[in-house]
Design goal:
Length: about 500
Amino acid sequence: MRHVLSALLLAAAPSIAFAQGQAGGPILTVEEAVQLAIRNNPTHLRALSARSRQGAALRSAYGSLLPQVGSSFSTSFREGGTQIVEGQQFGASNDILSSSYSIGISASYSGASLMQPRVERANLTASEADVTNSAAATRSQVVTQYLNVLQAQARAALQDTLLANNQAQLELNRAREQVGATTSLEVRRSEVLVGTARVNVLRERNNVEIETLRLFQLMGVDKMDGVRLTTTFAVTEPALALEELLDMARRGNPALNAARARESAANVSVSQARSQWLPSLSFQTGFSGNSLQQTNIEPSIASAMVQTENARRSCLSSDSLRVGAGLAPRGGCELIQFTDADAAAMRTANEQFPFSFTKNPFGYGVTLSLPIFNGFRREQQIQGAQASRNEARYQVRAQELQMQTDITSAYRSLLTQFQTVQLQEQNRATAQQALELAQERYRVGASTFIEVTQARTDFEQAGTNLINAIYDFHKFYAALEQAVGRPLR
């Protein structure tokens, strides 16, 4: 029995023991988890979407410098009849179909529009910095949660070990009861400890599932059953210099770079706001045409025939008067006549709807305007842009101070935690020796079961403290990497 207890206490590392219990499942390394999160994490994908939107805004800013071209085509119908406008009658006795087209070209340039591409490019640079910062934050969150899962697995493996130890102790007490070396009370106490250990096992295994679920949530994918986390993290003494870390962070911290990019964009926005004092130039031109067609041209033809006949008669009458006055006639009255060819020509000329357009005269216009006073709205916009720039500067300074604080605190905590891990390893080894000694003394009747229980409690606490110390060390390392803005191991 002694050898069984010793073998349980000297079992393999808790995380390895837990992984062996899940042998055969899919393997997930920390780098794979990070890459999956970069591709699928919804929060990070929103940053990518914002960058795409800003890229479209930059293209639109360049496009606004090109002339704007628009076109239109319209048709209409007007019933025959007249209408009175200011005492005058207008209209036609016939129904009319009409259509028209227009092609307009215009361009407008001002200081603000000319600087808009520069503003949008600065905003795009800031959006790209935000994407880099989001990727770094996502990586830090995934690494920390990966460590949380490993920590939960280690705690669950410790509880499995303690459950096996309590079960072995229960078998020992039952054997001692059979030979009269102990009482049934100690057997019942052992049974209570076994039941408590089983509850602890269930609780820790459920905690593993919850932490794993949170990891997959950060990764942005559905949880896989039986996944095995295979990345190991060694506890080694940090060989880092604080000043070197601060220098690296000043150059490469994603959050600080994003704040600086926002400050640059704010500076450009101030220049754009001030450009409103400059004059603006606009240009417009275009082409247009229309077509007009009567639905029934016959009344117009009849009217033209009557007018032609009246003209011929007037010509003949004039010639008669000239002859009577002893003058020579003008002649040519026989040429004044309305023929079928004239009627056909009127019918052909009327058939214009909808695409036989008559082009309107060409024209263009140029306007130069100089703003003078607009109710202080221009001044308000300039002050607003300057306030935004000042806020961006304050944000950069705040980020610098936050970065220095985060790096210094994480660095000092990392060094302290390394020493804590060493002390907790010693405490766990001492607690394990005390438990083995208490169990051996109890086996030979030199101590009570209460001493064994207390030794086991001390061993559990020491094991838990060691697990927490190890993974807190790794989490401080991850926090330091996030503050610096790059991996450090």
